[in-house]
Amino acid sequence: MKTVMIVAGESSGEWYGSLLAGELKRFWPGIRVLGIGGSRMREAGVEILAGISSAFGIAELLPSLRKIRESFRLAVKAITETRPEVVVLIDFPDFNFRLGRVAKRYGLKVLYYVSPQVWAWRKGRIRVMGEIADRVAVLLPFEEEMYRKAGIPSEFVGHPAMEEIEEARKAGDLPDSDKPVMRRKLGLAAGQPVVALLPGSRPHELRTLMPVFLDLVKQIKAELPESGFVMPIAPNIDVEKFRRYIDALTLEGVLIVKGNSIECLACSDLAVIASGTATLQATLLGVPFVVVYKVSPVTYLIGRVFVSVRHISLVNIISDSGVVRELIQRHANAQDIMQELRRILFDEQYRLGMTSSFEKVRRIFAGKRPSRRVAEMIGEMAGWELQKVGGPSGRD
Q1: 3-state DSSP: the chain helix, strand, coil percent, rounded to 5?
Q2: What crossing angle do the helices spanning 348-365 and 160-170 adopt, rounded to 10°?
Q3: What is the DSSP string of 88-135?
């Protein structure tokens, strides 16, 4: 039986893994896919060995160490007993680099999907990537050349955010960017201006940003009382752990939605987003936004020493300029966010300059199908012939 192992360590990687698993099963209907992930990968037919950790940063990592060690043990056990033809490692470098070494000791093929941000910090990890990965599938255009210069076979495959948006449009979930229709679908008033609030997918992000968003909503309502609000929550988040904030936000009129970040963004006029994949989703949808982020003081101080990039959001990194405002640590507060939202709302030239830059980024990713391409790469590495192309997704 054809067997592939997919290992994802947090929510966005688990989402990429679910899309990839779906493509693998369309190409090879009898394939066995197992790995580490969450509910979306399970729904895509992956045999889940252990759940994702959602840990980030030094202070945030420590409480998750026991869970991570157990996940690693189960992953090694699966490698030694199952011997998958290809092991797909998605981001999560401190875990996956170790697991990649185990896979190589057993002579297995390793595809690294979603490069760690070696261009931002710990650049010595490029050497480690060369030791463990037979091929690297990267999401950002400049990463391909970086790995090729290091002699590591790599390919820019595009980003699943663009893929999901295009699939949603084909399925009619984003009907010609008709915001009133999309708002009614979610339960929002069709004619009201809508602000999307995206607090991230990691528990520490929600803990630090939900109180800020609560203050922000009150301030927006005071100045723009006709506004509506929507907040998508990542599927793998334990909602009960944040019930106090969710109930408070709901009382202020915020619509809380499980998943559906793309539809929530597409129906919005502007957004406040934790740094991460959602910033690229907003960019590709053309929704003006401001980036916010907070980590523990320890994690932030360490980051200041070792991180060598000027920007944290994908649109700014890809554009190599400050297309959107980034409010970090103490600046991630309701007053500073509100000041930026006013500028987006009332300075037309500023807003149009932002969305014009978004369109340039969108063209870089348009037409690429990363999940399909990575599935093809797996087949190439394993020496499999394609058995089926197309299927329920409508891809051809």
Answers
A1: 55, 15, 30
A2: 90
A3: EEES-HHHHHHHHHHHHHTT-EEEEES---TTTS-TTHHHHHHHH-SE
Name the strands in the sheet holding 194-198, side by side, starting at the edge strand that comes first in the sequence.
254-258, 228-233, 194-198, 270-274, 289-293, 326-328
pTM of the full structure: 0.87
Closest by CA to 108, choosing from 381, 352, 373, 301, is: 381
Contact assessment for residue 302 and residue 228, using Cβ atoms and an 8 Å cutoff: no
Cα 118 from chain centroid? 17
In 3D space, the residue among 394, 390, 396 whose CA is nearest the CA of residue 26 turns out to be 390
Is the pLDDT assigned to residue 211 strictly greater than 70? yes
C-alpha 338/C-alpha 227 separation (Å) is: 13
Containing 382, the helix (H) or strand (E) segment is helix 370-382
Q: Which residue has the higher pLDDT, 142 or 386?
A: 142
Note whether 272 and 289 are within 8 A (CB). Answer: yes
Q: Which domains does the chain have, with CATH numbers?
A: 3-158+368-382 (3.40.50.2000), 163-365 (3.40.50.2000)
Q: pLDDT digits over 140-181, tens only?
A: 999 999 899 999 999 999 999 999 899 888 887 786 667 888
Contact assessment for residue 267 and residue 228, using Cβ atoms and an 8 Å cutoff: no
